[in-house]
Amino acid sequence: MNHIAHWIGGAEQKGTSGRVGPVYNPATGEQIAEVDLASGEEVSAAVATAKEAARAWRTASLSKRSAVLFTFRELLAAKRQELAAIVTREHGKVLADAAGEVARGLENVEFATGIPHLMKGSFSEQAATGVDVYSIRQPLGVVAGITPFNFPAMVPLWMCATAIAAGNAFVLKPSEKDPSAALWLAELWREAGLPAGVFTVVNGDKEAVDAILAHPDVAAVSFVGSTPIAKYIYETGTAQGKRVQALGGAKNHMIVLPDAELAAAADAAISAGYGAAGERCMAISVVVAVGEIAGPLVEAIAARLPQIKIGDGTDPASEMGPLISAQHRDKVTGYIESGVTQGATVIADGRNADNLPSKGYFLGATLLDNVTPDMTVYTDEIFGPVLSVVRVDTYAEAVELVNANEYGNGTAIFTRDGGAARQFQFDVNAGMVGVNVPIPVPVAYYSFGGWKASLFGDSHMYGPDGIQFFTRGKVVTSRWPDPGTSSIDLGFPQTR
Ligand code: NAD
């Protein structure tokens, strides 16, 4: 069986904890690998290696760092299909979707190639007579990333591209469910000429995470995962004096106003609700139908459901793959059952879908109508191919619903009315807003992050916020006096 080790000091390193976890191919249900699960001591050793590497890496010139990023970018662009295939094998999402994930990760690398510009400070000449003041940004040292199963390539790239370009050493603890993409990225960094120890992978579970959170030499932790764990990471990490950004779960609403283009809204609901089997933090899980469009919209979505081709992600004909594990599939089917018992109208029940592959963790697309905010299918993040439709009478009710929700990651409005769309952007409590765009993931030169229970901390991920997060500011006040003018002055320094 394939064995997945750690990556420490620029090379694979077999684990010594004696603990391993299984890695499955969700499309077949077969175990395809075992992954080492690091002990606290192994994490400590990895951080020590990273600390050494960070000392040297921050002395590398901006142009040298930028050159490594450019080479990494070229290699990643050339080999992107290899990485996509790894993502499909361990995560299950279809190849085209995996390629899309890699492409969005690549954009973060491209952004980070501009590090000489991104690290520029500011300079004020003659702030006082003969005194100049300037600001610089410096790397933090060793920083860590803890990532979820659903984007095993893109989320690590969100973090590591900016962290490394800014001059830090980056320690990645990927999801133990699909860890191979992280090891593949490690090899690529080596090939790109990144010095050993600047990019580290420690595989593991809670034990490794807790060791990272407790380690005094880890200056910052960037986390993406579910809300309860995000909250735990934020509280534990900040209590240890670390800088933490912890992105959590989501319940993304798509509001459809009565004047929306019906076919486009139905297409968008299908794409954003069932793409990646609903295992996206930016998936649409609630359609809020306003007024008389509700009936025709539900019909239009229902009519499209049989067209979704479900199957092994390696088959180019497949559009929706399996869920990540048998346990997760059972959890999602449990939610469907709760929707039924709590009175939702079942338009399509994925449990009874025709033509599901006989092996693997597949589930058909489910559409529930007349969902109300007290139902569990509404309150909980399901993270599966289950779309709920909530019917409301007015725009005001729709916005109230979104704003009252615990989560505030992404949201979208579908309308032909520019004024309504602008009002929505003004009113809504969410970090990322789409106008006739169902999955408004910001491009790499903006930053990604939700509000409310979708993000703990105050810094969004990647882009300008990413640079801020992985660096700290220093302000220098400088005078080069003529020795003849020196005098003693015990008063507080003034500028005028
Ligand atoms: P998860 O919270 O179970 O795991 C995320 C990471 O935390 C993994 O590396 C895991 O090993 C670690 N972890 C798990 N349990 C832990 C514990 N008790 N103590 C310490 N560490 C622990 O999340 P997941 O199931 O891998 O990913 C899906 C979740 O991630 C969904 O809730 C989804 O919405 C969210 N997500 C959010 C975003 C975003 O940008 N907001 C992006 C992707 C995924």
Automatic annotation (TrEMBL):
Organism: Actinoplanes derwentensis
Entries under InterPro entries matching the protein: Ald_DH/histidinol_DH, Ald_DH_C, Ald_DH_CS_CYS, Ald_DH_N, Aldehyde_DH_dom, MeMal-semiAld_DH
Superkingdom, taxonomy of origin: Bacteria
GO biological process: L-valine catabolic process; thymine catabolic process
Gene Ontology molecular function: any one: methylmalonate-semialdehyde dehydrogenase (acylating, NAD) activity
Entry protein name: methylmalonate-semialdehyde dehydrogenase (CoA acylating)
EC number of this enzyme: 1.2.1.27
Keyword Oxidoreductase: yes
Swiss-Prot/TrEMBL keywords: NAD, Oxidoreductase
Domain Aldehyde dehydrogenase intervals: 20-476
PANTHER family in alphabetical order: MALONATE-SEMIALDEHYDE DEHYDROGENASE
Pfam families, alphabetized: Aldedh
